């Protein structure tokens, strides 16, 4: 955590280097004439990796998390403040979440940790529940994903960077306590021996939440009639923990990097109610345990003067998952947590009890290479095979001697390969990346024990895709980007085989394909007498076939194909920082303002098939208009090297329908209402100067106005809550 100090102060110089697919700019030089004939060579600090990435041709936005680490917001909250991004949750900490980006959602977006798929990096609990204190920055790729990831993402990707740009030794910890029985702990330590090139590190986290916040429901009175009531959730606790351990070497003649990582995580979660929060559950639980590891080797022969100069990056990873789901209560519960009566048949979520475990083995390899074709031209190649096999067991069925469909083994094999060429033209003012991708899918599903002589279901697919990304500097501070990709997204194991809890299998799913277009213009921070300004404006177009949509009933979900969909959208962001001249009337503080707005029009354009009846309707159950705002006052050096900050965050989400808008009367439709929520933060950060640890203390009030907040129809999120967080690092 000591490396975070660099992000809180002036950016430190980063040596010129090459990370596969990302060339760090060398220091800029300028000759300044002075008196006489003497000249002074001024060397500007080289750009940080995040700055280089933001100025590249990639349709990417880099999100700094340094400030969030000093506050109580989790990673889901931080990412949701970004234009075009939505993070929806079915409750408090640990609840199921859905991530959306520019009109696409769920597995249409791929998630990585240090360019390793999330599920192979030790964070099986989902992106929103990754501890923000263990992340350096987040990279959000819109629509077009660089070939180096070796992925089949349809609508973009999110890469969480946990490793510092420059290895360093340090350690730190954080502890957060909050309303509704919330406790969160993280620890992070790293070691670097520059002479031996040895690096090592360990991280750990523990989360515990009762989630017993008040909700508004209908309960039966003495006569049996349903009346409105406010009760506390009584069966929604969440507990999770895990850790990683890294060891390896860097900056050696034979390897720029050779590292190994092992991880283990687990979580347990109580399930409080059905999908629309109309039926309470008192004993249903689910959870997951995951463990595995990755090996990585990278060497850039171009930096070492090899006879065959090229860069090589090799990754191999494996993960084992066990997903548990238990629902065998013989009791009916009411919203007060009391047992009302005994059930005829045990099981609260459906017509039969369940005590099941689903196991999965998953592996991935990635081989990437890069070489210079000519000055300003680089060719990159990557291939990524992956494999997953899944099977399970329902102990109740086994005990009863009835057929258990979970015992059938199912396997998924994919290979994604790509070639891309980057050209830097017009003295760096123009950058272009052209690429071609190939997708290979092979699935195999055995029939269940009750299927008799039914044949094994097999499916094979080959698909080509490609695109182009362009960045053009229109002036010293103004840049424009345009990108296009014809993308294929192969169904994932959870979509085909279900998740063993609430998502049911659909082995008939087809891959998605989409034409993705992104346009954007950005104003780099512009310093004027009236303040520093920044602005971005972007537009998207998505034309997708066989779009996979998560469709729900009151009991569970399943993934289905929409024949065709069209998504058009526009978003923009503005930022401002006050000039020094404002300091007096701001009582010595600096003021920073940020805001963004997103509009997305996602329509079903199918004229035939399952959803042909709904041609022209909005794709249901997803927000299409949302706005974020933030304001911050900072006082620096009040007593010593310290910072006092007061901040506000606001978010507005417009109402949207749960189902297809053309069905039924408008005044009787199920609607997720519009909502406006506010968060206030008060924080203090102290730099210990090396002899003492650096430390921060923050107090936060979330949902300040106690708004009834809903991300999903009928499912109420926490109201007003309080959190206190302390961090310390060396």
The percent range for strand residues is over 45%
CATH topology: Maltoporin, Chain A
Distance between the termini: 7 Å
Shape: globular
- Please mark out the parts with pLDDT under 50 across 5 or more consecutive residues, or reply none: 1-46
Helical content band: under 10%
Provide the structure class: mainly beta
Please state the average pLDDT score: 86
Main β-sheet description: 22 strands, antiparallel, barrel
What CATH first level would be assigned?
Mainly Beta
Radius of gyration, in angstroms, nearest whole number? 26 Å
Structure annotation, total helices = 7
What topology does this entry show?
Blueprint: H1 5-8, E1 18-19, E2 22-23, E3 29-33, E4 39-43, H2 49-54, E5 60-64, H3 66-69, H4 75-80, E6 85-89, E7 97-101, E8 104-105, E9 110-113, E10 116-117, E11 137-142, E12 156-161, E13 170-178, E14 182-193, E15 198-209, E16 214-220, E17 226-232, E18 238-252, E19 255-270, E20 285-300, H5 301-304, E21 311-327, E22 331-333, E23 339-342, E24 354-374, E25 377-394, H6 395-400, E26 410-425, E27 430-445, E28 457-473, E29 478-489, H7 493-497, E30 503-504, E31 512-528, E32 531-552, E33 557-577, E34 590-604, E35 625-636, E36 642-653, E37 656-657, E38 671-672, E39 675-686, E40 694-702, E41 710-712, E42 715-716, E43 721-729
């Amino acid at each position: 955590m000591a490396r975070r100090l660099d992000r809180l102060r002036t950016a430190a110089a980063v040596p010129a280097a090459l990370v596969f697919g990302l060339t760090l700019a060398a220091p800029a030089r300028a000759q300044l004439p002075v008196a006489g004939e003497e000249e002074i060579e001024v060397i500007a600090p080289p750009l940080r990796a995040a700055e280089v990435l933001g100025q590249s041709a990639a349709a990417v936005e880099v999100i700094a998390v340094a400030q969030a680490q000093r506050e109580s917001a989790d990673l889901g909250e931080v990412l949701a403040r970004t234009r075009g991004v939505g993070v929806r949750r079915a409750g408090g900490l640990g609840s199921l979440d859905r991530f959306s980006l520019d009109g696409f959602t769920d597995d249409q977006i791929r998630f990585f940790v240090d360019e390793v798929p999330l599920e192979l990096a030790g964070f099986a609990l989902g992106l929103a529940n990754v501890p923000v204190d263990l992340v350096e920055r987040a990279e959000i790729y819109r629509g077009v994903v660089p070939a180096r990831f070796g992925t089949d993402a349809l609508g973009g990707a999110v890469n969480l960077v946990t490793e510092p740009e420059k290895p360093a030794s340090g350690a730190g910890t954080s502890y957060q306590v909050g309303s509704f029985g919330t406790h969160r702990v993280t620890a992070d330590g790293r070691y670097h021996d520059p002479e031996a090139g040895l690096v090592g590190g360990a991280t750990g986290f523990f989360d515990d939440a009762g989630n017993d916040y008040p909700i508004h429901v209908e309960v039966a009175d003495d006569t049996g009639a349903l009346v409105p009531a406010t009760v506390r959730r009584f069966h929604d606790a969440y507990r999770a923990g895990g850790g990683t351990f890294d060891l390896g070497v860097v900056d050696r003649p034979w390897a720029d990097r050779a590292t190994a990582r092992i991880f283990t995580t687990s979580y347990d979660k109580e399930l409080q109610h059905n999908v629309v929060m109309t039926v309470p559950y008192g004993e249903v639980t689910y959870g997951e345990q995951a463990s595995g590891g990755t090996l990585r080797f990278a060497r850039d022969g171009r930096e070492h003067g090899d006879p065959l100069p090229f860069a090589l990056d090799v990754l191999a990873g494996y993960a084992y998952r066990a997903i548990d789901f238990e629902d065998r209560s013989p009791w009916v519960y009411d919203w007060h947590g009391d047992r009302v009566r005994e059930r005829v048949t045990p099981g609260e979520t459906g017509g039969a009890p369940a005590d099941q475990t689903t196991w999965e083995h998953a592996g991935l390899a990635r081989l990437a290479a890069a070489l210079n074709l000519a000055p300003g031209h680089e060719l990159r190649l990557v291939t990524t095979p992956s494999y997953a096999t899944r099977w399970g067991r329902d102990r109740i069925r086994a005990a009863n001697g009835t057929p258990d469909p979970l015992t059938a083994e199912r396997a998924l094999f994919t290979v994604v390969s790509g070639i891309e060429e980057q050209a830097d033209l017009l003295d760096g003012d123009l950058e272009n990346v052209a690429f071609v991708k190939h997708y290979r899918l092979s699935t195999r599903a055995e029939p269940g024990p009750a299927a008799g002589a039914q044949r094994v279901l097999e499916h094979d697919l080959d698909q080509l895709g490609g695109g182009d990304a362009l960045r053009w500097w229109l002036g010293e501070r103004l840049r424009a980007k345009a990108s296009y990709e014809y993308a294929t997204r192969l169904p994932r194991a959870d979509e085909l085989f279900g998740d063993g809890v609430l998502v049911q299998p659909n082995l008939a799913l087809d891959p998605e394909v989409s034409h993705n277009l992104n346009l954007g213009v950005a104003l780099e921070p512009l310093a004027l007498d009236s303040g520093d300004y920044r602005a971005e404006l972007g537009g998207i177009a998505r034309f997708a076939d066989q779009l996979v949509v998560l469709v729900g009933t009151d009991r569970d979900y399943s993934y289905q194909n929409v024949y065709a969909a069209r998504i058009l959208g526009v978003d923009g962001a503005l930022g401002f920082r006050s000039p020094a001249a404002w300091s007096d009337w701001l009582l010595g503080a600096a003021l920073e303002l940020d805001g963004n707005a997103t509009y997305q029009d996602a329509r079903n354009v199918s004229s035939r098939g399952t959803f042909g009846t709904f041609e022209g309707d909005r794709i249901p159950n997803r927000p299409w208009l949302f706005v974020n705002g933030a304001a911050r006052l900072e006082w620096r050096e009040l007593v010593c090297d310290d910072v006092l900050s007061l901040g506000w965050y606001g978010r507005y989400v417009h109402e949207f329908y749960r189902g297809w808008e053309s069905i039924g009367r408008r005044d009787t439709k199920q609607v997720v209402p519009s909502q406006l929520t506010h968060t206030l933060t008060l924080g203090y950060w102290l730099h210990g100067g090396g002899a003492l640890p650096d430390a921060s203390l923050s107090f936060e009030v979330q949902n300040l106005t106690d708004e009834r907040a809903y991300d999903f129809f009928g499912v109420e999120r926490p109201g007003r809550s309080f959190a206190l967080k302390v961090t310390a690092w060396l």
